[in-house]
Design a protein that fits this description.
The chain is built from seven helices and 15 strands. The chain is of the alpha/beta class and about 250 residues long. The strands form four sheets. Strands 2-1-3-4-5 form a five-stranded parallel β-sheet, sandwiched between helices. The longest helix is centred in the middle third of the chain and has 16 residues.
């Protein structure tokens, strides 16, 4: 039986796609339904699915970044991007060895995609193809993005601090809140990590697993341990941070 992972941050759309897939491809087992890119990357690395349905715009890692990372983490997984983008983006997809579903997803279009997937089983787009898509679609999408955060307000005990984003070494999830780590110590931000992801500059802040986002400017070095995980040494903090093995490909070139 073929296996699949769905990654879509909007619950109604994620549920609708899962329902359509069960009707259109009864032999397909949905092994994970994820609401963000980090969870999707970890699920794909764990389950090694035959197919991954990836929304392009998700908190943290985009669908394109997840697809690029799994060229190492799960090289046999086929990719289907789910997009609401215009014809400019569709033209880019048509030039690559990937398929796409345009929102809102119709049963007829999904049936065509399923047929294509079954015919080319085991074919994954290469890293160069995905890198080109990332540049082309990412550049188009960024034109409408809001400016990234410059500062945040966080609590230290009863005190409220104003913290410049550039001074943050990393963010760590803590239930419904987020711990903010700076050279001076930690503070508590009353915003979940998942919501914070969309407001940060993705060129500078990188998710290293589902519970941690690091400021690349705060990283002194990165090494790989025997398990294939990355170990980040920070410039102004004594502790080290672990990068989950599936996320290591995102640090290629550092």
């Amino acid at each position: 039986m073929a296996k699949a992972v769905i990654a879509e941050d909007e619950e109604l759309l994620r549920t609708a796609l899962a329902s359509l897939l069960r009707d259109t491809w009864p032999q397909l087992e949905l092994v994970a339904e994820c609401e963000d890119g980090a969870s999707a990357l970890e699920a794909i690395a764990e389950h090694q699915p035959d197919v991954a349905f990836l929304d392009i715009r998700m908190p943290g890692l985009t669908g394109l970044e997840v697809a690029t990372a799994i060229t190492e983490a799960s090289p046999a997984t086929q990719i289907v991007f789910v997009t609401a983008y215009d014809q400019y983006a569709i033209d880019a997809f048509d030039q690559g060895a990937v398929d796409y579903l345009l929102k809102p997803i119709t049963r007829e279009r999904l049936a065509t995609t399923v047929q294509r997937l079954q015919q080319r089983s085991g074919h994954h787009p290469d890293a160069a193809t995905l890198a080109a898509l990332l540049r082309q679609i990412g550049g188009r999408a960024s034109a409408d993005d809001k400016p990234p955060l410059v500062w945040i307000t966080a609590s230290t005990g009863k005190e409220t601090r104003l913290i410049l984003i550039d001074d943050v070494a990393y963010f760590r999830a803590d239930n419904k809140y987020t711990v903010v780590m700076t050279a001076e110590g930690e503070a508590l931000l009353r915003t979940p990590l998942r919501e914070l992801l969309d407001a940060l500059d993705a060129r500078i802040f990188k998710q290293i697993h589902r519970s941690t986002i690091v400021n690349l400017k705060a990283v002194a070095s990165i090494t790989r341990d025997d398990a294939g995980r990355g170990v980040l040494k920070l410039r102004n903090r004594p502790e080290t941070l672990l990068v989950s093995q599936p996320f290591m490909s995102l640090f290629r070139g550092m």
